[in-house]
Structure formats: C-alpha cells, structure tokens
Design goal:
Elements lengths: L2 E7 L3 H12 L6 E7 L6 H11 L4 E5 L6 H14 L4 E4 L11 H5 L7 E5 L13 H18 L11 E4 H7 L11 H11 L4 E5 L14 H17 L6 H9 L1
Parallel strand pairs: 1-2, 1-4, 2-3, 5-7
Antiparallel strand pairs: 4-6, 5-6
The protein binds guanosine-5'-triphosphate and magnesium ion.
C-alpha cells in the first residue's frame, strides 16, 4: 500500500527538515512525502529540494508558481500524488501542530473507512494547551459555525489532518473543488459526507506551531466564514452515492 503524505508549505524553512525526518522515521513501509511549496520567500522550496536529493524516491517537491493558497496547493498536490500511484493520501500541516507520531493511528483505520480525520473535537482530542481562552473559543466557534450551517455529522470540519483512500478522492472529483484557501478543509469534508462515504474521526491533540509565523489573519477568517455559505449553495444537489445508485437501479 503506497502512502503519500502531502505537505503544503509556505515559509516553513525551520520546520520542513525536522518534519520530513520525523515522517520518514515512523518506519511506515512505502511512505512517500510530497512537499507542495508556493514559492516561499524564506527558501523552504530549496531546503525541500535538498531533502528530495537526500531521500531519492521517498521525498518529492512540487514547486507551484502563480497565486498561492492552501486549497490550490492541496488540490494540485492530491492530483500529483494520485498520478504517481498513491493508494492512500495523508494531508497535514508542516508546522508540527499535527503530530507526525499520530499518522499511524489514522492509517490503522484506512482499511475500513474512506476518510479518517484527526479530530480535535471528540473525546480525547483537543486544541493547543498554549492557546488562550479567546483563541480556543474562536477555533471552536468557527468549527461549530461551519458544521451547523452545513448540517454535518463530522465533529472537526475545519482541521487539516486526514487520511484519504485513493477511491474517495477519485469519487469526489477534485476538479470540482473550488476553495483557494483554508475553507478547502470544510469544502472537502462536506462533499465527502454528502456523498455518503464512510468517515471515522480519531482523537488528536493539536499543538502550537513549533517555529515560524502564522499566516492566519482576521481577514482570512472572515473570508472563510462567508465562504461556508457558498459551499452550502454549491453542493445542494450532491446526494449520497448509495442513494443515487438505488434510484438508478429501481
Ligand atoms: N503551499 C501552501 N501552503 C500553505 C499556504 N498557506 C498555508 N500553508 C501551509 O499550510 C499549513 C497550515 O497553515 P498554517 O499557517 O499553519 O495555518 P494555521 O495552523 O491555521 O495557523 P498557524 O499555525 O497559527 O500559522 C502549513 O504547513 C502552512 O505552511 C499556501 O498559501 N500555500
Ligand atoms: Mg499551523
């Protein structure tokens, strides 16, 4: 089973090396890493190239040009991973907020599920201890807001630590994903649940970013909140695959 971890990076020069080493150090057979860098001004892309040279066949780098954005980077990264033969695609942040040691716990459930989510909002999960009350409330509120408007059962719809089966990403049709930024997480969770895929959440502790600066701003957060409504409208016709099949058959 070939597993590809897609790591989007924008100014993660101090984190990319330790993250790649930590992932390779897990000892997961057939694990590859695809770094998707958006021309980071801090030289993350060049560091990633050196890592790829040190670990041929295990680490690859995709240098995006043009407008940057988390959603854009993930869509193109997922496509590349599938084209290169991945059976399972893992997505995670590169700043150690997602603990690489949790990857095996996500992968353990992939044989019986179409999507496995590392979840902060189920018993046993949680957000960074370093966060103040304000930041914790903001994160929980954003998640509650999105899942309530969209009527989702998934508890953590805004997080970005997930393992996807190849068949799920193919069935969801990545070409319809429109999100350019952080709302990508909500959009893909929504499509997946609406289509009736088997989704499991496993608890994770989200940590504070280890090094570097945050790219999240108030403007980005407000934009994401408004985009939830757009996602709601865009996929109103999407029905579970099983229901569609049943309708066609009879
Ligand atoms: N390729 C690419 N990666 C991005 C972009 N924006 C963010 N990322 C990466 O996506 C992951 C999550 O972004 P973060 O900036 O950590 O977002 P966050 O966790 O909500 O906020 P902080 O940790 O507080 O910065 C990190 O690995 C980032 O480097 C982008 O425009 N392009
Ligand atoms: Mg982060």
């Amino acid at each position: 089973m070939q597993t590809t971890v897609v790591l989007p990076t924008y100014n993660e020069a101090e984190n990319i090396g330790p993250m790649v080493e930590a992932l390779l150090g897990l000892g997961i057979p057939d694990l590859g890493i695809l770094v998707v860098d958006d021309a980071s001004p801090d030289g993350t892309g060049e560091i990633a190239d050196r890592l790829a040279a040190e670990h041929p066949g295990r680490v690859a780098v995709f240098h995006r040009t043009g407008p940057r954005g988390l959603g854009r980077a993930y869509v193109e990264g997922f496509r590349r991973a599938l084209a290169d033969g991945a059976d399972v695609v893992v997505q995670m942040d590169c700043d150690f907020s997602h603990n690489p040691a949790d990857v095996p716990r996500l992968l353990a459930h992939i044989p019986d599920h179409d999507l496995v989510i590392g979840s902060r909002y189920i018993p046993g999960g949680g957000t960074a201890e370093e966060w103040g009350v304000e930041r914790k409330l903001l994160s929980a509120w954003a998640n509650f807001y999105a899942r309530t408007i969209l009527g989702l059962r998934i508890r953590d719809v805004t997080g970005g630590f997930r393992a996807w089966r190849r068949e799920t990403l193919e069935g969801m049709d990545l070409s319809r994903v429109r999100s350019q930024g952080y709302i990508f997480q909500v959009e893909t969770a929504y499509i997946c649940e609406r289509m009736g895929y088997r989704i499991l959440e496993v608890p994770i502790r989200f940590g504070e970013r280890r090094k570097g600066r945050s790219k999240m701003s108030l403007r980005v957060q407000i934009e994401a909140a408004l985009r939830v409504w757009e996602v709601c409208w865009r996929y109103r016709q999407v029905k579970p695959q099983r229901a569609q099949r049943a309708q066609r058959n009879g």
